[in-house]
Specification:
The protein has 20 helices and six strands. The chain has 478 residues and is mainly alpha-helical. The strands form three sheets. The protein has a two-stranded antiparallel ribbon with strand order 1-2. The chain has a two-stranded antiparallel sheet with strand order 3-4. Strands 5-6 form a two-stranded antiparallel sheet. A hairpin with a 2-residue loop joins strand 3 and strand 4. Helix 4 packs parallel to helix 15 and helix 9 packs antiparallel against helix 15. It is globular, with a radius of gyration of 24 Å. Belongs to the ERG4/ERG24 family. Keywords: Cholesterol biosynthesis, Cholesterol metabolism, Lipid biosynthesis, Lipid metabolism, Membrane, NADP, Oxidoreductase, Steroid biosynthesis, Steroid metabolism, Sterol biosynthesis, Sterol metabolism, Transmembrane, Transmembrane helix. One of its GO terms (molecular function) is 7-dehydrocholesterol reductase activity.
């Protein structure tokens, strides 16, 4: 991801990271051990560490050439997955023959933009979500500002919104206001509508920046990654609303609509189909129940609102999340109920542990380290860093519990859940499992960015933490 001019810096960063990790293994076990001890034992001086941190903070995670490729590739990748899953059932030969030998060839990937029913669905869906966001009761959740700072507070009602909109959809289908499989039948058109809405929204946002004085977008890099952390429209945080209400809400409605479609076409509900629907709905409910975990995540605190975030939330994530359900519903041969039950149990267990591990660290930071982890006093490092205003701040790096086994346990458990989702569909061809492949690659790239950001932010303290917690994703393997 780096340009040719940045290879020397990348090599220096890798060497520094290895030295920092290897030299601090003999540190005393105190949770508040200072990084200066490790610096005296390391061949890297304090000045070297600060120089590396400053260079990394100036360094962009990807080059402009890579950004141009991503801007061009991301829409076609999303549409390819959508077309392969919903038109060709993920079959390799049929997908390629359709794209290579049928007119208009590659343009067949484009979703229908003039599906009037899809536009009506999207309009009603967004209107109802905005209404529920305003009228439903809200819970107050704590947002950690730093390891030693006082938390801020936000009000959320994502779980209530999801439950109400799902019940409203079922009620409308039961009263025969519309076909119960409406969302499933017009899903490709819905994705096309959301694509157009996302591009139009970005255009309006950047037009506002152009005529305003607060922000400006001048490069392709700023267009892709964004320049504003938390833009608001009508006092609504756009970034979180897209993922919590639109992506996850559409995910829930598609799952319910798919179950209706399966029942209407087969006249029975196959046990594997029912288990797939239950597993996905459980995943969605857990996501919304732990909305405060996501509000405390890196995406909300670090990632700006740009083309990447808009496209992921409105297009690619809905396609990836719904792909396993679509494969199972379209398949005429399902896996045996016993295997479906085992994979469903794996989804439930891994999803539960995803949020148990995430909440373990969140509670630890909310209590500023004054809490038991696994019944014992936790091991942690107080890592100092330079805040945006120039003041010195500190964060607590937890090295106990799940966070003592690997540095990214939430990613590990979430990947296990999505692997189980993919296996629930059996072997539907390589393209049928392409969403899982895309998700694995995304997490690996994200881990690399997270590690680089932490090294730039915490310096020697991060090397000390890596010496304590040696594995990133899978204990004993990676």
């Amino acid at each position: 991801c780096y340009g040719a001019n940045d290879r020397g810096l990348t090599w220096t960063m890798d060497v520094a990271s290895r030295k920092l990790s290897s030299r601090v293994g003999s540190l005393r076990r105190s949770s508040y051990s200072s990084s200066t001890t490790s610096l005296r034992r390391s061949s890297l001086s304090s000045r070297d560490v600060h120089a590396i941190q400053a260079a990394l903070l100036r360094q962009r995670p990807v080059s402009n050439h890579t950004v141009i490729v991503l801007v061009a590739l991301l829409p076609w990748l999303s549409y390819f997955l959508l077309y392969s899953i919903h038109t060709c059932q993920g079959v390799f030969g049929e997908t390629l023959s359709s794209l290579l030998f049928r007119w208009p060839f590659g343009l067949r990937l484009l979703p229908p933009l003039f599906d009037s029913i899809a536009w009506k669905i999207v309009a009603v869906f967004l209107s109802v979500q905005l209404l529920l966001h305003e009228v439903l009761p809200r819970d107050t959740v704590a947002i950690v500002n730093g390891g030693t700072g006082d938390p801020a507070y936000k009000e959320t009602n994502g779980l209530a919104c999801t439950i109400v909109i799902c019940l409203a959809y079922v009620l409308g289908a039961t009263l025969k206001f519309y076909r119960p499989d409406l969302v499933y039948q017009h899903f490709a058109g819905i994705i096309g509508c959301l694509s157009a809405i996302g591009i139009a929204g970005l255009f309006l946002l950047y037009t506002k920046y152009h005529f305003g004085e607060t922000h400006s977008v001048e490069t392709i890099y700023e267009f892709f990654f964004g320049v504003e952390l938390a833009p608001r429209v009508l006092e609504i945080e756009v970034k979180h609303f897209m993922r919590s209400r639109i992506s996850m809400g559409l995910y829930a409605l598609f799952t319910i609509s798919s179950l209706y479609y399966s029942h209407s076409t087969t006249k029975i509900m196959h046990p594997s189909v029912a288990l797939v629907g239950a597993a996905h709905l459980f995943y969605i409910i857990c996501w919304q129940w732990c909305e405060d975990v996501h509000l405390n995540g890196i995406d909300e605190k670090v990632a700006n609102l740009g083309f990447a975030r808009v496209w992921l939330d409105l297009v690619l994530y809905p396609v990836i999340y719904t792909a396993p359900v679509a494969i199972v519903v379209m398949e005429k041969k399902h896996i045996t109920p016993i295997f479906a039950l085992l994979f469903c149990a794996a989804v439930i267990v891994s999803t539960v542990f995803t949020y148990i591990s995430a909440r373990q660290r969140l509670n630890f930071r909310l209590h500023k380290g004054n809490v038991k982890v696994g019944g014992h006093d936790p091991y942690f490092i107080m890592a100092k860093f330079r805040a945006e205003g120039g003041d010195t701040a500190a964060n607590l790096l937890l090295g106990s519990g799940y966070w003592g086994m690997m540095r990214h346990p939430s990613y590990t458990f979430d990947l296990v859940a999505h692997c189980s989702f993919s296996f629930l569909g059996g072997w539907s061809g390589p393209f049928g499992h392409s969403p899982l492949i895309v998700l694995v690659l995304y997490y690996l790239i994200r881990i690399s960015f997270d590690e680089m950001r932490c090294l730039a932010k915490y310096g020697a303290s991060w090397g000390q933490h890596c010496a304590r917690v040696t594995y990133k994703l899978v204990p004993g393997l990676y």
